[in-house]
Amino acid sequence: MESLDYISKNDYLKRYFEDIPREELRKHCRLVIYKPQNIIVKKGEHINFIGIIISGRALLVNEFANGNAYILKELKLLSIIGDIEIVSLAKGSACTIESIDECTLIAVDDKVFLKWMKLYHGFALHVARRLAERFHESSNENGKYMVYNSNYSLISTIINVVDNITGGKTAENFNIRLKNTRKELGERIGLNERTINRLLQKLKNENLISINSGKIYINNFQLQKLKELKENLQMDRRKI
């Protein structure tokens, strides 16, 4: 299947590219396939294309000079890569993007993308609206991190991990071991291992989790208390 076929069969893509002549789309849109765990974009490197994910998933990862890397977001179907950097004329990508599984993109070269924005005002409006939506979403996410402290983020993550293990259905009495490492927990919420260790110790001291030989355990009583604490934090936005 060619890129034009995907565009024709997807309502969102049809609206996004509706002002671009069909011949232009046929000439300049191409399919690019990345194997699992391949780098799509490396932080700091110049991006010379925009890509729209039409199958598979990718991770948005921020890497720091000290070697720490934090997963910021999972990019799913119809996520767009490279538009912010190209429109802003940035010299390099702010983050690394890595495929999770086999990932297919519809790609357009940066110069063509900018030419389309100049020639087709409807297309430029779609691009601007999409960027504004993402900025609004990002602002909301940043606001949540400002309102809810790191402890709230860790509590939410632990609850989600347990729910994923049990499918949301738990026996009356259980004691579950979390298989996630402290590093993995930190990557989910953008915290380093030292901070995660400190927060876990605080939860342990309050009998909200158990730690045995470095492993994290949680029973039904503790899970219920964590959920109640999370609800209270959502309601009054107070710090623990």
Your description of this structure?
This protein has helices at residues 3-9, 11-16, 22-28, 83-88, 110-119, 121-147, 150-166, 182-189, 193-205, 220-236; strands at residues 30-34, 39-41, 49-55, 58-63, 69-75, 80-81, 96-99, 103-109, 175-178, 210-212, 215-219. The protein is an alpha+beta fold. It folds into two domains: 3-131, Jelly Rolls; 147-236, Arc Repressor Mutant, subunit A. The mean pLDDT is 86.
Q: What value does the Rg take, in angstroms?
A: 22 Å
Let me know the largest β-sheet. Answer: 4 strands, antiparallel
State the low-pLDDT regions, or none. Answer: none
What class, by secondary structure content?
A: alpha+beta
Task: Compute the number of helices.
Answer: 10
CATH class category of the largest domain? Mainly Beta
* Fraction of residues in helix: 40-55%
Distance between the termini: 54 Å
CATH architecture of the largest domain, by name, is Sandwich
The percent range for strand residues is 15-25%
CATH topology of the largest domain: Jelly Rolls
Kindly give the count of domains. 2
Per CATH, the superfamily of the largest domain is: Jelly Rolls
List the helices and strands and how they pair.
Elements: H1 3-9, H2 11-16, H3 22-28, E1 30-34, E2 39-41, E3 49-55, E4 58-63, E5 69-75, E6 80-81, H4 83-88, E7 96-99, E8 103-109, H5 110-119, H6 121-147, H7 150-166, E9 175-178, H8 182-189, H9 193-205, E10 210-212, E11 215-219, H10 220-236
Antiparallel strand pairs: 1-8, 2-7, 3-6, 3-8, 4-5, 4-7, 9-11, 10-11
Helix pairs in contact: 5-6, 7-8, 7-10, 8-9
GO molecular function: DNA binding
Domain HTH crp-type: 148-222
Pfam family, one: cNMP_binding
